[in-house]
Specification:
1 helix; mainly beta; elongated; seven-stranded antiparallel beta sheet; three-stranded antiparallel beta sheet
Length: about 130
């Protein structure tokens, strides 16, 4: 039986709307190892000091033609400096929760339509502390 519950990320207790994600852009790099003071010895062999804490990075772009109101909903969910994110971890084949920050996104405008802004795809890079 699969542990997958039909969503990719959840912010706090709120499932991030899958309809905002351009699925072919979604990528996660779960449990990336972190080295400290690793070095190459006199024989040319790498000696690694892998720390117990790992980091995950989740990246995706939104769908194109996102409206201003939808962008605002996304911004209310994704707190730039302190986001608790639960994500589908393909390394463990289960959901994992951690503390993340959002790298500086750009907001490319496609067009303006009366009292609305329509955006091209917005890319997000969400990185674990």
């Amino acid at each position: 039986m699969s542990a997958f519950l039909g969503y990719l990320i959840k912010v706090g207790e709120t499932i991030f709307p899958i309809e905002y994600i351009a699925l072919d852009t979604y990528n996660s790099s779960p449990d990336q190892r972190i080295d400290q003071d690793s070095y190459t010895d006199g024989n040319g062999q790498l000696v690694r000091n892998i720390l117990p804490h790992t980091r995950t990075k989740v990246t995706f772009s939104t769908i194109s033609e996102l409206h201003l109101a939808d962008k605002i909903k996304i911004q209310q969910l994704l707190k730039r400096d302190d986001t608790t994110l639960t994500y589908w971890n393909d390394e463990k084949n289960t959901y994992t929760t951690g503390k993340f920050y959002i790298a500086d996104p750009n907001y490319p405008i496609k067009r303006i339509s009366e009292n609305d802004i329509i955006y091209n795809a917005i890319s997000f890079e969400i990185i674990e502390y």
